[in-house]
């Protein structure tokens, strides 16, 4: 079975259903990081339809991926699409990110989940990171919302921007890890613990 064609099929399903997916440059950035570092396991927060986790699973270096999705309908579509592919190293879970628990440590954590409480989410997931691991955080620019004229933004949109800005400032202010905001796509944060 050609996984590349299945990945493209899933990408088109996401696009046709207006399901946000990881952008190409962000995916390339993460895949290059995997290639050049000791990355063998991934935890993803925010499965959606499973596009990014399927893309990560195609990397031969990766031996385990756990991906979590709160929305049951998204999870069901992801399971229905990915299960027939029989990718044993890919584990999909239908659970709220704030309720997830594990004894595992992951080399890479990809956060593309809820934007409203990211500081709490980040601090929870930091405990699941291996000593030399890295956290990627997608969509820190929120350009789609920021580009709406100020008078047209809803209170909810203004609040999300405020929360994400607070999160970025929090990441910049901490001394126990290195934070870098990469200017690609919709802004990608990279967090590494200081050795």
TrEMBL record:
<protein>
    <recommendedName>
        <fullName>O-methyltransferase</fullName>
    </recommendedName>
</protein>
<keyword id="KW-0808">Transferase</keyword>
<dbReference type="InterPro" id="IPR002935">
    <property type="entry name" value="SAM_O-MeTrfase"/>
</dbReference>
<keyword id="KW-0489">Methyltransferase</keyword>
<dbReference type="GO" id="GO:0008171">
    <property type="term" value="F:O-methyltransferase activity"/>
</dbReference>
<dbReference type="Pfam" id="PF01596">
    <property type="entry name" value="Methyltransf_3"/>
</dbReference>
<dbReference type="GO" id="GO:0032259">
    <property type="term" value="P:methylation"/>
</dbReference>
<keyword id="KW-0949">S-adenosyl-L-methionine</keyword>
<dbReference type="InterPro" id="IPR029063">
    <property type="entry name" value="SAM-dependent_MTases_sf"/>
</dbReference>
């Amino acid at each position: 079975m050609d996984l590349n064609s299945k990945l493209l099929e899933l990408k088109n399903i996401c696009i046709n259903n207006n399901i946000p997916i990881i952008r190409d440059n962000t995916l390339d950035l993460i895949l290059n990081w995997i290639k050049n570092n000791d990355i063998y396991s991934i935890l993803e927060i925010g499965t959606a339809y499973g596009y990014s986790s399927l893309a990560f699973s195609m990397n031969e270096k990766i031996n385990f991926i756990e991906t979590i999705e709160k929305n049951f309908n998204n999870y069901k579509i992801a399971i229905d699409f990915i299960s027939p592919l029989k990718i044993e190293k890919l584990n999909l879970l239908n659970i709220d990110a704030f309720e997830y628990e594990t004894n595992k440590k992951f080399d890479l954590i990809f956060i593309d989940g809820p934007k409203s409480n990211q500081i709490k989410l980040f601090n929870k997931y930091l405990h699941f990171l291996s000593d030399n691991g890295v956290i990627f955080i997608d969509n820190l620019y929120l350009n789609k919302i920021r580009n709406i004229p100020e008078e047209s933004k809803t209170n909810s949109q203004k609040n999300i921007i405020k929360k994400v800005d607070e999160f970025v400032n929090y990441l910049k202010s901490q001394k126990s890890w290195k934070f870098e905001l990469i200017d690609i796509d919709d802004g990608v944060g990279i967090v590494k613990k200081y050795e």
